[in-house]
Amino acid sequence: xxxxxxxxxxxxxxxxxxxxxxxxxxxxxxxxxxxxxxxxxxxxxxxxxxxxxxxxxxxxxxxxxxxxxxxxxxxxxxxxxxxxxxxxxxxxxxxxxxxxxxxxxxxxxxxxxxxxxxxxxxxxxxxxxxxxxxxxxxxxxxxxxxxxxxxxxxxxxxxxxxxxxxxxxxxxxxxxxxxxxxxxxxxxxxxxxxxxxxxxxxxxxxxxxxxxxxxxxxxxxxxxxxxxxxxxxxxxxxxxxxxxxxxxxxxxxxxxxxxxxxxxxxxxxxxxxxxxxxxxxxxxxxxxxxxxxxxxxxxxxxxxxxxxxxxxxxxxxxxxxx
Length: 322
Hints:
Elements: E1 7-11, H1 15-26, E2 30-34, H2 40-48, E3 52-54, H3 57-63, E4 66-69, H4 76-88, H5 90-98, E5 104-108, H6 114-127, E6 131-136, E7 160-163, H7 175-181, E8 184-186, H8 193-222, H9 225-235, H10 239-249, H11 254-270, H12 280-298, H13 306-321
Parallel strand pairs: 1-2, 1-4, 2-3, 4-5, 5-6, 7-8
Antiparallel strand pairs: 6-7
Helix pairs in contact: 3-4, 3-5, 4-6, 8-10, 8-11, 8-12, 8-13, 11-12
């Protein structure tokens, strides 16, 4: 096996993290993660994907050329603080010197507002100089492999917009190659631009999902879910399929989207000048929070269809009223 092009630490290994790990592994990158506090199932998934597991942040950071932060939005700041703390430890600094490691590149790929990501960048600037910070976001689903192992170019990949004063393709350790493999697009030199684009995109895609959840639930309560579907097919072709797919597909992600909606509202308030109107995203966050609570209490085994999802939501509402 050839020498890896670079060591990429991924925090953390969820569905998206696993997909990106598989993509990078197939292109000769060494992938690491920290599995302390994670479930046995998560550890097993990481091991089966060929990911090298570390027990501490210090070990992980000492070995990394790049760190990709891909965590629920609520954990973005805490994750950055963990990395700052690890970099400040004498053990980590010593190991990086021994391995000849220069500054680590930290890619914040979380769904957070421009203001929040600028705060994260400030954490590194104020506390740890050995970091090159890159603002980013992920648009689309996890990478998926091609039908044949010989068709690396045929990987299905999400889009990853990036911004900040340091373009990824200028990184000294395979930066140009990594930027291409990750399907990145450099938007310019300001931290916050890439996160803002992600907010604008998610407002449309996940905002539609929240509307679909409410529309389908209300229609079911009225006994008109099937007529609603029929009218959608006639007067808004494609909307029914998109709505149904999003309603069923969001059940396992709703808990992540609560804080993401709050971050979008903050983006629109501060960057878009929509002070009053941006508050709508607090209500949308409430929609996803309600769904997340139902999933946590009851599981999502019976929520594999529109009827299952709206039925669970309506049953929960009825129980609260009784």
